[in-house]
Amino acid sequence: MGAAAVSAGPASRTSGTSARPPGRRSIAFVIVLACCAAAPTVGDVGSCGGPIEALDAHKYFAARAELECRHCQDCKLETNACKVACDAHATLPTAFPEGCHPLVHDGDVCLNALDALGCGAFGDAVSDTAIVPTECDFCPPPVILEAGVTP
Question: Full-prediction pTM beyond 0.70?
Answer without folding.
Answer: no
